[in-house]
Specification:
There is one protein chain. This protein is an all-alpha fold. It starts with a helix and ends with a helix.
């Protein structure tokens, strides 16, 4: 089981591999969208999202990961509010509160949560404007990649790996 530094590192590595892999997706729409990845701000954004979702499963406990996640979420919420994106700020606040609904290593450490928790990243923008679907899917993928890295490092993706690492 990794600590917050391990989860941040894992999310950066998996998020970076995900971003690099986007260039190889087939199809015209995906290639055009992945050309956005030349933009360093989008690349940094994808990595930050991967890190946030890499820390997300552990934010239900008093930890450094929780402090980092809520610190970044707080700053993000202030920026969203200051720029008039009140609805997005509300969604971020709702997402940040969800882990308190369960116990540690409960629902936040499940494979289904890895897919469902970031789903509003796709659904909410799509409900307002269909033209953002490609970009929303790219951001969703970064969130899932970060979440995946957390579950992987906690041994919840490959259980055999976790058993070996705990015996040492």
């Amino acid at each position: 089981m990794a600590g917050y530094k391990g989860h941040i590192t894992g999310a950066v590595v998996v998020g970076s591999a995900y971003a690099a892999g986007l260039r190889f997706l087939p199809g015209e729409n995906w290639r055009e969208t992945s050309n956005l990845l030349v933009d360093w701000q989008l690349l940094i954004g994808l990595i930050v999202i991967a890190v946030l979702f890499g820390l997300f499963p552990d934010i239900d406990t008093n930890s450094m990961g929780q402090n980092i996640f809520y610190g970044l979420a707080f700053v993000g919420d202030i920026i969203l509010i200051a720029t008039g994106h009140i609805e997005a700020a509300a969604y971020l606040g709702l997402l940040a509160m969800t882990p308190i609904v369960g116990k540690h290593r409960g629902w936040t450490h499940s494979k289904i949560a890895m897919l469902l928790v970031p789903l509003p990243i796709v659904l909410v923008p799509y409900l307002h404007r269909e033209s953002v679907l490609d970009t929303a899917l790219i951001v969703y993928g970064a969130a899932v990649a970060g979440y995946f890295s957390h579950l992987l490092l906690d041994g919840l993706i490959i259980r055999r790996f976790a058993i070996r690492s705990h015996r040492r």
